Structure formats: C-alpha cells, structure tokens
Amino acid sequence: MAHILVIDDDPLFRDLLLENCSVLGFEAIGAASIEEGKAQLAAQPIDLVFLDVRLPDGNGLDVLPSMNRLPSPPEVIIVTGMGDANGAELAIKNGAWNYLQKPLNRQEIILQIKRALEYHDKKRQCANKVILNRDEIIGTSASILSCLNQVAQCSNTDTGVLITGETGTGKELFAHAIHTNSARAHQPFVVVDCTNLPDQLVASLLFGHAKGAFTGADSDRQGLIEQADGGTLFLDEIGELSLDLQKSLLRVLQERTFRPVGKVREQKSDFRLIAATNRNLEAMVQQGQFRQDLYFRLSAFTIHLPPLREREADIEKLAVSFVLAICRHHHFSIKGILPETLEILKAYPWPGNIRDLRNVLEKAILSDPSNPAIYPVHLPPEIRLHHIRSMVESRHEPHNHFQPPPPHSPRGTILPYKEYRRQQLDFIEKHYLQSLLQEAEGDISTACAMAQFSRSHLYNLLKLHSLSVATMPGARTPERLSDPDPTTK
Ligand SMILES: Nc1ncnc2c1ncn2[C@@H]1O[C@H](COP(=O)(O)OP(=O)(O)OP(=O)(O)O)[C@@H](O)[C@H]1O
Q1: Which of the listed residues 138, 144, 172 should we mutate to test ligand 1's pocket, taking the one with most ligand atoms within 8 A of CB?
Q2: Where, per the database record, does this protein carry 4-aspartylphosphate (predicted)?
Q3: Is 172 near ligand 1, meaning CB less than 6 Å away?
Q4: Alpha helices of 170-232 — where are they, by DSSP H?
Q5: Does ligand 1 have an atom closer than 6 angstroms to the CB of 236?
Q6: Whole-model pTM over 0.80
C-alpha cells in the first residue's frame, strides 16, 4: 500500500488531503511543520509528499534536496496558496513532480495522486531492473547498497549529479561508476580538481586557448570542457571554486557553450556534469560563499556517501580485498588478517575513511613483507590505542548485552505472536552462536563438541546468521585470503 505524507500547517487543507488519500485506500500521514515532516520521512518509506511552501519553521522548497537524497526518494507535489513563478521553477528543477495552487478540488487531488503514484511505481520497477556494473566498489552494507541503487537510477539519465561525503569515502569512484554505467561510457571521463586551479591559468585550462592568446601560448590548446565533449566532466571539490568561476561555470551549464581564451567564436560541448564535495554547500550558500542558482542546478540528484565508521559491516570485505590487491601489486604471497587485527580495524572511526584504511594496510604489509599474516602489532599505535581505550571504557560501563528485540514493529504496532516468536528465537540462536564461538576461541571442532552439534549443522547455522569464525573476537585461526568464508567449506 502506498504511503502519502501531507506537510501543511493549514489543518483544514491537511485534513482534506488526508481524507482523500484514505478514501483511495492509501495510508496517509499528516505533518504541520518541516521538522515533523522530516521525522515522518525518516521513520518510514514514503511514496508521495504533498508539500506546502510557507511553513512555520521555514520554506518547504528548501527540503527538496534532502528528500531527493533519501534511499527511495518520494514524488513531491508542491501545494501553495501563493503562486510564484520563480518558486515553481525552483521546485521543478529540484525534481518536484508538480506545483499546484490552492484551492484544489477533489477530482484534481485524486488525479494528481493517481498519476504521481503510477509514475513512482514504474520508476521503482525500472530501477530494480538495472544491472549495475559496480566498477571497483566494494561493500554490502545497507547504506552502500542504497547509494548503488541511486547510481543505477541516475546512470541511464543525463541529469547532473552531486556526490557528497567526507574525504576518502569514494566520491570519485562513484562518479566513475555513474559514467561507466551510462550511455557515455565509451567517451572520455574528465576529472577537474577544483582545489588546484591556478587563478591565472584557470580559464585556459577549462576553456582552452588560441595560439598567441597570451605569452607562452605557442599553439591552440583544448580545454577540459572541450575534452569532455560526449562524455562526463567530473568536478571534484566543487566547494573550492571561487565565486567568479562559479559564475562562469553556471553560464556553461546553462548555455552548454564556452569560448576559448583568445577566440571570438563560442564552441559547444555536450558533457554530463558530476560534481563532488566534502563541504556543506547548503551552509555555504547561506553564508554567501556559494551561488544558490549553481547549487540548485548541481543538487537536483544528490548521492551522499556514508563515512566508513557508519558501515562497519564493510570493513572486513574492504580490508580483505585491499590486502589481496596490495600483495599482488608488490608480488608478495597473499597474506591473512588475524581476527584480532580485524577487530581493531572495525573499532577505529577512520577519519580519512577508505583511503586511510587502504594506506594503513599497505604500510602494515610493507613493514613485514615476509610475515604470512597481518598482526595487530603491524598497525599504527594510534589505531591500536583507540581499540584498547574503548575496550577499557566498555568494561567500566554497566551494560546489558542481552537485550531481546521489543514486541513492536518499527512503526510502533504490536507484532503478530508468530512473528515475534520467530524474531526472539533468531535472536537467542545468534546470541548463543556468538557466545559459543567466543568460548571455543573460534575453533570449530571445540564449538561442535561444546554445543553437541554436527559440523555441517554448525556451519549451516553460522551461514544463516551471517556469522564467520574469522571475525569472532578471540578466534585462533588467522583468516586466510584464499579461504575468506570458512562456512562455505
Ligand atoms: N567502496 C569502495 N570500495 C573499494 N574502494 C574504495 C571504495 N570507496 C573508496 N575506495 C578507494 O578509496 C580511495 C579513495 O576514494 P576516492 O578518491 O574515490 O574518495 P573521495 O571521496 O573522492 O576522496 P576526496 O574527497 O579526498 O577526493 C580510492 O583508492 C578508492 O579506490
């Protein structure tokens, strides 16, 4: 059943919409402010939003970019009492499904709901069908899968994409994945690092120049924008562009034409733009450091890459894959990673994210090339100390590891007894297996003897609960890269 959210502070209009949605058999939720609306969007997947513009805590249009960033973005219908052509343009450019003016009659409301949901449904079906080439992107955490889903959604369009995320989270890798999954895959992928654009040369670097345009210009030279013709232009660290350059870029984006330095004629370039930043462009717009019009143009489709500390589940896969690649690159025999080492890697908050993880592993391997495994001692002291500190702190904290799940669904309704019983049994079984492996120090034969399980039964249970011997604290055997999943034996 589709879920519809109505964000409007006018109780009469909100109730009218809610009533119509319910009559059509949809689940309808009301919110009287931006904050309430955001809380509802975070609490459950929403398919369609009716959004008022003037709300007690701000302008509804400002929320559009963050709605687009949701793992499954809803269709948005702006409903306003004050018709405003600029607002309508802004809304449509930011991906709104429609812009309507109050009052609305019942028939119109029903038609809009049906059309928007029909489209939403088709869009979802298409997104699910896309076969994505992941490039070199590693990870199976829910957050990275949701980002890959967004890559699939935008790859087969020509829309501009803004990729945000801390340094080293993979922004360039994702930009490349969008390119390789698009129809432009066989055309150039041109990278411009906006942090290192020298003021005097920037125009010639981006737009090219004619022979004799300035001292040292001995021949005509193609700029990066021309080189990207037919392909993708990736502007890395776009938050570093000066206001002057932002203005020039906006013009290029609007007109799709540029003029090389020293030439009279404008030239055309058909490129797809992907931009990336680790800065908060919304805040920069408010502080007057980034042009609002350029921001709206860039942020129509935004992908936010989560920091590594929020996807601990991916650390093991990344580490294993990096060790394999690094050993191959240096022609070393493949090394294992000790379970204790993995535990330390997982506990670290990784401020430099994936790049940092890779560098740490490379240094660890190079520091002791002949050792067949990576031990904690190969890791930098600050990373080991972080783990030791958190272990000491957690010992002092009163805690209860054994907290069974509540009998309510995430939406607050009581679960049917059968479902609740299944969840409890799953929980107890997983808890037992974790304790068992810990007691047996990761030794499968000992664990089987303790639990009175056959080997195959234990392996089946471990697989069912996505547990692996190598990742259990205290496991004795170093994980060998040639045997990454002992449960598959
Ligand atoms: N999911 C991933 N799987 C495998 N490798 C990854 C992943 N994400 C990032 N990397 C690797 O981490 C390193 C940093 O990635 P990348 O340069 O794309 O990050 P970035 O966010 O663009 O960094 P910066 O903001 O500093 O430019 C690269 O070596 C990249 O290949």
Answers
A1: 172
A2: 52
A3: yes
A4: 171-180, 202-207, 224-227
A5: yes
A6: no
The mean-pLDDT minimum among 84-93, 183-192, 375-384 falls in: 84-93
65 pocket-lining for ligand 1 (C-beta < 6 Å): no
pLDDT value at residue 470: 54
Task: Strands of 248-311 (E only): list them.
Answer: 257-258, 267-268, 272-277, 302-304
Atom of ligand 1 nearest to the CA of 137: 3
Q: How far apart are CA 94 and CA 297, in angstroms?
A: 8
Residue 259 token pair: 């003029």
Q: Phi and psi of 330, rounded to 5°?
A: -95, 5
| Distance between CA atoms of residues 486 and 468, nearest Å | 7
Helix (H, G, I), strand (E, B) or coil at 268: strand
Which of 355, 359, 360 best tests ligand 1's pocket when mutated (most atoms within 8 Å of CB)?
355
Domain boundaries of the chain, sorted by first residue: 3-128, 142-210+222-306, 311-399, 411-489
pLDDT tens digit sequence for 35-46: 999 989 888 889
Task: Report the CATH superfamily, name and number, of domain 142-210+222-306.
Answer: P-loop containing nucleotide triphosphate hydrolases (3.40.50.300)
CA 83 / ligand 1 centre spacing (Å): 44
CA distance 129 to 108: 32
- Ligand 1: distance of its center to the CA of 350 in Å? 13
At 358, phi and psi to the nearest 5?
-65, -45
pLDDT, tens digit, for every residue of 392-433?
776 555 545 566 777 876 656 788 888 788 888 888 898 898
Q: What DSSP character marks residue 397?
A: S
Q: Hey, what are 174's tokens? A: 């994702």
Ligand 1 centroid–CA 170 distance in Å is: 3
CATH architecture of 3-128: 3-Layer(aba) Sandwich (3.40)
Distance in Å, CA 235 to ligand 1 centroid = 15
How far is the C-alpha of 282 from the C-alpha of 295, rounded, in Å? Answer: 8
Given this chain, do its domains 3-128 and 142-210+222-306 carry the same CATH topology?
yes
**Using a 6 Å cutoff on CB, does residue 165 contact ligand 1?**
yes
* CATH number of this structure's domain 311-399: 1.10.8.60
